[in-house]
Amino acid sequence: MTQNKILAYVGTPEDKEYLHRLKSLVGTAKVFVRLDEISTLVELELWAKERSITGIFLNQKHLLKKLVGVESRANPSLDSYQGSYLKRNGIEYVVLNPLEHLVKVNYAPFTFKRFLSKLLTPEKWNPTPEFHWKLYEPSNCEAIYERFKTAIVISIDIETTENPLRITCCSYTGVFSSATGALETYSYVIPIKDDYTWVWVDRFNQLPAPKIFQNGKYDISYFLHYGSSVHNYLFDTAHAFHAWLSELPKDLGFLGAFFVREAMYWKDLAKTGDMMDYYLYNAKDSWTTALVFLYWLLEVPEWAVQNYCDEFPLVFPCLLAEMTGIKQDQEIRAAAYAETEVKINDLTAEIQQSLGGRSFNPGSPKQCTTLFKILGVDVTSTDEKNILKYSLIHPLIEWYGTRILQIRKLRKENSTYLVEGKNYHGRILYALNPQGTDSSRLASSKHHFWCGLQIHNITTGPSVRRCFKADEGFYFGEADLEQAESRDTGYISGDENLILNVSGSKDFHSINASAFFGLSYNDLYDDVARRSKNKPIRNIAKRVNHGANYNMGANVLVDTMGIPALREAQKLLDLPKIWSPKTVAEYLLSRFNATYPKLKGQWYASIIQEVITTTMLVSRAYHHTDSPPLSEQEIRRRISIGGWTRYCFGRPDKNKSDLNSYVAHPPQSLNAQTLNKAWMRVFYEIAMNPQFSRNFRLLAQIHDSILFLYRRGHEYLATKVKECMEIPVTVLGADKVYRTFTVPAAIKLGAPPGAEFWHQTGD
DNA sequence: TGGCTCTGCGCC
DNA sequence: AAAGGGCGCAGAGCCA
Description:
By secondary structure, this protein is of the alpha+beta class. It folds into five domains: about 5-120, Uracil-DNA Glycosylase, subunit E, CATH 3.40.470; about 135-300, Ribonuclease H-like superfamily/Ribonuclease H (Nucleotidyltransferase, domain 5), CATH 3.30.420; about 325-420, Taq DNA Polymerase, Chain T, domain 4, CATH 1.20.1060.10; about 430-495 and about 600-763, Alpha-Beta Plaits (2-Layer Sandwich); about 495-595, no CATH class. The chain is about 45% helix and about 15% strand. It is built from 31 helices and 27 strands. About 40% of the residues are buried.
């Protein structure tokens, strides 16, 4: 069938060197190619008709703009329209990204192939059902509501404005079984005009059918803001897709293009200023959400459904934590901001004076480059580690370097963390997104209400942390899984030395220092006093461990540790004086590899092997949370099925950054899974448990810790959190040995006075 | 002015 | 030749 079809690729001159990659994807189909600029659609159509071309893959931005419609004020980007389908004058168009993506983006060959098939093999696509929609009217709502009572599933999408914070309209798409047994859809949009329309929104939200959202925490936060909840939220397309192909984009525009042959990116419609367009756009969003979910169900492999079942429940504790937020003391914040500003101004004045009054912006990489070039530096980058490197050249460079870095730090503190207006009624909110990472870690961003902070990277310095205050009568508590990733690395790789060193009662970094450098452990650490006896050497071991964990090369270790630190290490360890910093770094890394010989050798090889033969990384771990306990046999059966599974588009055998990414994945992912299980337990056993909920507030998960508030006098709740987190795990190591271990959790409670502030985490 | 990319940097 | 993982946000600079 494809032989009869005549298609065309219309791109740009930049595509030329990648055309052979396109050819290998289209197979035997006849595809004309034009890379010169075509000024109008008429010209393009004429050219196409002369050659009986019926379908065009389009990568010319100005033509896309004409195709999308002149009424749109928006400037369409190819990326947001990738995979979109449009039809005009009998010619089908599919929008593609520049062919360069085939080389630069790991998943591009996969997505291109899928989008190309929209024209090459349309018969393989699910048919797109007809789109029907209606706008709310007082006269139609009752009847439509009655009909929606019979829906199989209902998808929901809302539109909002940021200022004021409100919902402008809500769209519901019901999926129904028709008389013939086929599925059909019907979409309904309710603009929020008054209390009466709001009542209808609330009634639709309470309908019995399971609900589908695209990133539902966003919509539900707004509903909650208005006092409406949603009944039976079970499905979410962002989580569903993430559970399958986590490395791919997850926005609704992309998902629509991915699953629905005739889908088009229509966000730009919302910008035309026409309210009917706006409502139509809202309707199409919920319609697409429904289709994406249904087609996902038809296509996904079993392991992705399993991933979904692990991931989706996390949404609820995340929502609770997001909507709780942390109180920010505005007086302390404003004072801290002013104090920092004075310091910034003083330092800036110093630099300016030295430059004869000329203005200079330390935040501008361009200006910093110019300055360092004038000072005679061969500048590659003006980031911190490079400035520290340049500073060794000459005291004058150091003079500027230290000031520039100081100013940048202070500016970051103010602009990101202390600036006014981030709070929502005095609280800092945030989003916790289980669909945000490839490893099943949560990602964090500012809150859906367009305010707040990313909660995972709050500066630990006192001026920022002191602004965060516990609610009246509460104290902060934080429980973290100790050395979790190193422990996980040991058990996953099966490196006995690492298992031994990380799971004993001794200080991990000191025992490493002892093993790396042949020193006596007793000279390095006092187990009784729990104190390091040689902090510099312990610190070297710590940084080497950190670097080696991420498969760092010697040069990068030089950059991260810095030349002075390496010189210091050279002296402390009595290494030959003629060694260069790079040689010292190489030596340090070699000591790590000699101590843990299975990591770089066997384990990395097994990861590469798994990815290139199966395109997946499967977690082989079982968390002991079932009650009653499972038999050993059943545990092994479950491990053989596998836990969190990541579909991999990278090539770890050919690309070091892909390899680094994939070797970092298993421990990071296993730790995340453990913490996620703990997160669920804390949610159900403490935060939502009527016995404790009054005295406990769940705040956040921060990579290896859980942050919470407990009411004064209820310290036992902190102990409960710790118990929830200490989950035994059975892991099948790369050496084919099953081992069971538990990562211990350590509680940090703010001791009064000061426990009402978010404590600075020490280390 | 808005949107985009790049740089730099905060945390684990 | 050389190659540090995972995130998100602010500012600079550039473009239309």
